[in-house]
Each structure stands twice: as C-alpha cells, then as structure tokens.
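RECORD TYPE: inverse folding
INPUT: structure tokens
STRUCTURE:
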C-alpha cells in the first residue's frame, strides 16, 4: 500500500478516511496489525554470502587473461611465472571482494538515516516509539532537530523548515506549509506539504500523517537504485574488447601456420612443438601483472592528491572520463551561504536587525542566519547582550517574515526580516528610498542571490497586519564558488571533458554559479527537472548535447542522465555527497564521493576525495590520464613483443625453415625483456600535456588505428630483420646452433630497443633526446638487469638454452641488426609524428577516435 504518490494532492480529511485514521491517531492493536501486514518501517537488505561475493570476482576479462596466462606458464614448466600470476589473481580477487562487500553497506547506511525514536499519537495520547514501528496512518509530532521517520503529509505546521539536501541537493532549507493542496504533477522538491523520510526539521513544529513507510518511501526508491550492479570500469571493458580481437587474430594466425605445416609434411610432434611455441609467444602473461602494478601505483599517487581509491580499476577511469556530472553545493561552491551583496539605507540598524532578528550562532542554526552572524563577526555577541529580546514572532511561510521585539536603549523596537515583497507591503519609506530598494532588489535577484529585506518599527505591534515599518536594507546571499574551480573547469574543457552541473537548486542560482566558473556560456541551454519529466529519451539526449546546467534535478533525473550519456558512448564521472546522489554514483563509470558526504554516498562510490573541490577531481584526472597513457604504452610494448615472436616463427614455417627460436628461449626472452622492462612502465612520467588531449572512444582506448599500425610495424620489423639474418646465416653455411643463437639474441635486443622507444608515444626518440632518456630512468635499470641475465645465459650456461657463446663475428651481426631495427622503428615514428602534425591532431586523438561529444 503506497499512498505517498498522491497524498500531496489530498486534504488531511481525505487522507484520514483513506488511511482509516483520525486526528487521534490509530489504535495500538491496529498498529500491530499493520506491522504484521506491511512490515517494519525499515529498508530491506538483501544479504549476500561471502562466498557468492568472492566467486563474482572471477567474471572479469582481466581475471580470465590471468587464468589463461597462469595455465600456459604452468604447462610449459615455468612455475615462477605461474605462481606470480596466481598471486596477482588472488590479490585482485581479494581487493574486488573487499570493495564489493563494502558497497553492500550502502543500503545499511541508508537505513541508519531513519533509525531514531519518534512521537506519535495513539488513541489520542502521545507516545514515544522506535521509528521502525511507525506505520501507515500514524499521526506524528515533529519539532526542530527531529529526523523525519517516514513520508508524512502535513496536517499542521508552524514556521516549519526542513533540510532536504540529502534528497534534493538543494543548499537551503525548504519551507513547508500544511494548508497547501498541490497538483498531481508536482515534483518532490515542489511538495511543500510533505516531509520525506531521512530529512531533518531545521525550524518550527509540525503534525502529520504517515502516508508511506519502509520500502514505499521516496528514500527507499533511491535505495533500490543503489542495488543495481555498477558498470564495469572502462579499463575492464576496453581490455575485454582488446582480448576478443586478440583471440581472433591469434586463432587466425595459428590456423594458417597449422595448414602450412601440414602441407609441408611436418610431423605431428614437430607441429605440436611449433604451435605450443607460438601459444607461449602469443600469451601476454605480463599484461595483467603490469596493469595491476600501474593501477596500484596510480592509487598510491592519487592518495597524495587527496583522492582515496576504493576500486582499483577505477584509477584508469579517471583518464577515460569524457563527461563530469558534478553537483554544485560543496564541490563547485563552498557549501554554505555567505553575504554576497548589501543595499543599506541605515547600515547600523541593518546590522542590529541582522543580529537581533536571528536565532543562530556562528556555528549553529539556519543557513541564512548563520551567514548573517558570520557577516557581522564577533560584534554580534555584544549587540545581543545590549538588546535583550522581549517578544518573538517565528517565521511563517504564509506571512514570509520573522520578527522580534528587543530593548533598544530606553525604548522597545521591532526588528523584522523576510521576503522583500512582504516587507515592502508594510513599508512607510519615502518613494525615493523604495525606488532605490526596488532597483537593488532586481539587480540582486537577476544575479541569482537569495534575498532578505530588513526593517524596524517603533509603532505599536499588537496587530501584525497594522505594522508600519521602515526598511533599512537588503542583503543578498550566495553559496560562493570555491577558489580554483574556474581554472579546473577550463582545464577539463581544454582536455575535451564536458562538465555538466546537476543540482537541486533553482535555475537562476544554478546559471549564475555555472557562468561564474565557466561551465555555462551564453547560448547554452539549462534544463530543469520538470522539463526532463516530460521528455522521451531521444528528446532528452538531443537536449543534453547543448546543455551544461541541469537545475531542480531529482535523484531519478541524475540517474537517467548518466545512463543516457553512457548509452551514447560517454564515459561518465559523477560527483556527489548526499543520499540523492547514490543512484547516479552507482550507475556512473566512476562515482566520486565527497569526504564529508553521507556514508551512503561514500560506500557506493569508487573513489572518495578528501578535499571537496572540483579542482582536486581535475587534478586526479591528470593523474588518471598519465596512468592510461602508461597502460597504452605497455599494451603496445607487450603486444609488439608477442607478435614479433609469432611472426618470426610463422615466417620461418612458411619459408620451410627450422624454428629460429627454441621454446625454451621464448620463456627466457619473456624474462630478460618483458620480465624486466614492462615492470618499469608504471613509473613513466607524463609525456607532453595529457590535459590537451581529447578522450578516446572506449573501443579505441588501447587499440586504435595508430596503435594497431605501430604494433604491426614494430612486429614486422623485429621479425623480418631477425628472420633475414637467420636465413642468411643458414644459407652461408653457418651451423644451425650459431644461426639460432644470433636470432635468439637479435629478438632480445630488438625488444629492448622497442621498450626504449615505447616510453614516448607522441614523439620520436631524437625529437627531444634529453626527454627521451629521462622520461623513465627505470627502463635503463631494467635493460641493464636483462643484459646481465642474457650474458649469464650465453656465457655461463648456453647449453641450457640451445645456444653457443657468441664470438666477435656473431656479436657484430647482433649489433648491426639491432641498429637497423632502431633506425626502422624511429623512422616510422617520425613519419607518424609528421602525419599527425599535418592533420592537426598532434597530442590529441583523431576525430574518429574521440568519444561521445568530442567526436562531433
């Protein structure tokens, strides 16, 4: 039974009849009956066993690659590699298990928001009961500071204001009025005759009837969205695309080699040895390990940039983000109101009125009133002490003002503050002053400021309708933009990232702040929640293309926008701190919670930033892009080293030659090249300015046409040069052992050359030699270790590797081939760099490779 959907359209009498209740509440036995039928007023939790959560970690494509690599290594007797990979597999699974189990606490965090005690009327008597025992039809009494335990239709209200920020994201309290009857199309933030579960009473008192409890509340609808499975990270999806394509290519190549071998009449044993050698060559077993290292190191670095990573693959998502859907309050703005502008006709009386007609202190109270206290400063204490309060008229949503009477020297004086329209109707100011105030009001309202008027009166005050007041000034409030946000927005936009502000605030306030920080520009549209409600998905997506501000947004609107952007190829990062942000945080490719946000938001998000500032997020995106660039480089390097070995073996088979590298040598090559060089890629420094590149489409992230062409060229060069030398030496009468040793060494040194050149993707090595040498000093250490290991293999135990110790002539062949490989790869990089420069896409991806809005 859920009557909350339309209870705001009904009178209290209609609801009493519908819910079989009365002003005296319900009987105790009826409450027990309803508890048995509808259950407790709590959010349901679907408990998952530890085992099921752990098993779920093995569905990832990354884990599949790890398992295949471990099995292949074990089959070839390479137990060390197999154990390392298995260790990484276990670590990854445990990390994923821990993250997912913590995510399960998001529902529990939501539940805690409604755990309290509440005063209800049962059989005409007031009773204090646990909030989970509240049932439909209960009459509830609420006052300042109380937590709203269920969705409640107001019956009576007196100066009532509720903090609904956790649901709507709006930065100021919502005024509530029991007597209003609303149309059916009124959205939650427009339902001023309703209180919602999980919100707080800021000011005033209320009596209301429970219209929805437990799973039927508006809060519960948000909790249900939190149960949806989060999407796989961009890295996981990109690697899944990459692995499928890699499998297709490998199966095709192995099939071709098998057919050629059979046609050549090779024996089954020989072909089995050849195909196993190719499989070992093809398996990029170092990839999962290096990916994990890069992500772990990235998470460590981000922790020094005020970003805490809760889900390791999300580190790369920062670098892939194409849209940031950010909330306003606390991320773009300071998160509290402050006095922005004043129009004082009597400055001293304005100060007195701001302090005396005010219940707050600098630390506690209504957002507007605390802003006034901060504006006055420490002087407010002496003003209050010297002007004791005699009378108090609380804020009334209907009259729209608050008033006090205070002792003022030898007489008593009325101080009043409220809406300008309400005070102007009582004003006795001269026309010239009223005109000045009217003009100031229009200017401040157009600037999106929240306005209050202040007045005084020395007349009789028995009849409020007969008050004659003198307005002494206007004060405009705003939630000011944080320092550095404007620069952060500009950096994000320069990087091809679209920043969209999604807020519960009104469109005027949202537009002013968005324009101030550079998110909104003239000509761009602003959508609001009511418009979104009326739009179909196709229409909404078209509207989003030219929209950078979404105001009066509800949780379901933010969630819908995220899903719609994702469907059109965007990688969406969402920031949030309240319960209202939970659905979007869960649905986003990267959910980022604020450090001082709700536990529900933090337990749902994949990252938490300790400094609630968009600038921190943009700085983290820079780090994420460096991480993504390093991932792209290591994928290129590992694939090129895999394919050059495959091409070398395949080429020899097609030419009818014996194997140019032995399966045992392949395993050793993986140690002295991949094993010691790919582990250095995580510490590669930023190349150029990563924030001047546009984000790539997901399927192009690691495997676009530039990457494919480069992998192909390097693989062909390494394989061709090695095969040419191997063939030449056999034709010249050198023994197979000598030719095999030389090809073994050339493929090793060629892969070292590739590792050095792979440190820079955007520029050739000789374009900036100093930078090429220093961009990753660790690569030289890695190659040094590899060189030492290779020397031991060749000069100490060559027989273990079916090799002979190289003499001077063999070393000359190896050196000449290595130099040729370097020249050919470097020449190609100069050609690619020139093509990109001529096409004006240097340091950015090509238009066809950019994601979402960038591709347009």
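DESIGNED SEQUENCE:
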């Amino acid at each position: 039974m859920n009557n909350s959907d339309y209870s705001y359209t009904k009178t209290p009498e209609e609801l009493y009849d519908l819910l079989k209740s009365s002003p005296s509440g319900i009987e105790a036995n009826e409450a027990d009956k309803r508890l048995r039928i509808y259950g407790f007023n709590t959010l349901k939790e679907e408990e998952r066993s530890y085992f099921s959560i752990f098993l779920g970690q093995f569905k990832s494509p990354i884990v599949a690659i790890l398992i295949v690599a471990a099995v292949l290594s074990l089959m070839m007797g390479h137990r060390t590699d197999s154990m390392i990979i298995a260790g990484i597999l276990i670590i990854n699974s445990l990390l994923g298990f821990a993250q997912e189990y913590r995510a399960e606490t998001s529902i529990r965090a939501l539940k805690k928001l409604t755990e309290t005690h509440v005063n209800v009327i049962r059989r005409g008597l007031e009773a204090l009961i646990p909030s989970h025992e509240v049932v439909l039809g209960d009459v509830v009494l609420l006052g300042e500071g109380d937590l709203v335990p269920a969705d409640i239709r107001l019956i009576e209200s007196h100066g009532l204001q509720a903090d609904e920020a956790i649901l709507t994201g709006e930065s100021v309290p919502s005024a509530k009025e029991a007597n209003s009857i609303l149309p059916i199309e009124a959205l939650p933030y427009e339902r001023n005759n309703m209180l919602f579960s999980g919100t707080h009473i800021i000011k005033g008192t209320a009596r209301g009837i429970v219209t929805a409890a437990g799973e039927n509340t508006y809060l519960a609808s948000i909790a249900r969205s939190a149960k949806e499975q989060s999407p796989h990270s961009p890295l996981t999806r990109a690697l899944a695309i990459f692995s499928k394509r890699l499998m297709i290519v490998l199966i095709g190549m192995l099939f071709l080699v098998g057919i050629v071998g059979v046609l050549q009449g090779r024996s089954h044993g020989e072909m089995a040895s050849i195909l196993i050698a190719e499989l070992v060559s093809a398996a990029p077993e170092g990839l999962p390990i290096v990916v994990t290292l890069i992500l772990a190191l990235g998470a460590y670095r981000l922790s020094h940039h005020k970003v805490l990573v809760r889900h390791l693959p999300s580190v790369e998502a920062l670098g892939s983000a194409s849209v940031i859907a950010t909330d306003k309050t606390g991320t773009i703005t300071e998160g509290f109101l402050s006095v922005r502008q004043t129009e004082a006709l009597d400055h001293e009386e304005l100060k007195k009125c701001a302090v005396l007609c005010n219940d707050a202190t600098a630390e506690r109270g209504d957002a507007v009133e605390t802003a006034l206290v901060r504006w006055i400063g420490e002087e407010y204490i002496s003003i209050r002490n010297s002007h004791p309060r005699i009378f108090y008229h609380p804020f009334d949503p209907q009259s729209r003002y608050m008033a006090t009477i205070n002792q003022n020297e030898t007489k008593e004086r009325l101080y009043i503050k409220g809406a300008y329209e309400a005070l102007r109707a009582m004003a006795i100011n001269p026309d010239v002053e009223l005109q000045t105030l009217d003009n100031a009001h229009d200017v401040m309202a157009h600037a999106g400021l929240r306005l209050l008027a202040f007045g005084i009166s020395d007349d009789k005050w028995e009849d409020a309708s007969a008050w004659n007041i003198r307005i002494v000034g206007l004060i405009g409030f705003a939630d000011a933009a944080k320092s550095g946000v404007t620069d952060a927005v500009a950096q994000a936009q320069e990087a091809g990232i679209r920043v969209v502000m999604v807020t519960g605030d009104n469109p005027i306030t949202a537009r002013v702040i968005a324009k101030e920080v550079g998110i909104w520009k003239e000509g761009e549209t602003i959508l609001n929640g009511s418009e979104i409600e009326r739009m179909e998905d196709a229409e909404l997506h078209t509207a989003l293309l030219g929209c950078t501000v979404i105001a009066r947004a509800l949780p379901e609107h933010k969630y819908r926008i995220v899903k719609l952007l994702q469907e059109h190829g965007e990688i969406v990062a969402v920031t949030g701190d309240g319960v209202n942000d939970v659905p979007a945080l869960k649905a986003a490719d990267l959910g980022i919670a604020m450090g001082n946000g709700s536990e529900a938001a933090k337990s749902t998000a994949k990252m938490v930033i300790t400094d609630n500032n968009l600038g921190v997020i943009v700085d983290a995106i820079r780090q994420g892009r460096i991480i993504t660039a390093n991932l792209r480089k290591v994928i290129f390097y590992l694939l090129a080293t895999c394919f050059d070995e495959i091409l070398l073996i395949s080429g020899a088979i097609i030419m009818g030659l014996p194997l140019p590298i032995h399966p045992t040598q392949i395993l050793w090559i993986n140690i002295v090249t991949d094993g010691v060089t790919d582990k250095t890629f995580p510490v590669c420094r930023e190349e150029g300015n990563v924030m001047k590149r546009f984000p790539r489409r997901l399927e192009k992230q690691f495997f676009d046409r530039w990457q494919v062409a480069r992998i192909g060229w390097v693989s062909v060069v390494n394989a061709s040069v090695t095969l040419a030398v191997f063939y030449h030496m056999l034709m010249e009468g050198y023994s197979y052992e000598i030719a095999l040793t030389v090809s073994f060494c050339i493929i090793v040194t060629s892969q070292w050359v590739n590792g050095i050149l792979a440190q820079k993707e955007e520029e050739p090595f000789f374009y900036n030699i100093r930078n090429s040498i220093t961009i990753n000093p660790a690569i030289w250490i890695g190659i040094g270790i590899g060189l030492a290991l290779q020397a031991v293999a060749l000069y100490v135990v060559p027989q273990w590797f079916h090799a002979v110790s190289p003499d001077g002539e063999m070393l000359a062949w190896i050196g000449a081939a290595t130099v040729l490989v370097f020249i050919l790869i470097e020449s190609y990089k100069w050609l690619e760099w020139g093509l990109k420069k001529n096409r004006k896409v240097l340091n950015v991806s090509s238009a066809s490779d950019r994601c979402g809005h960038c591709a347009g």
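NOTES: Residues 50-103 form one domain.
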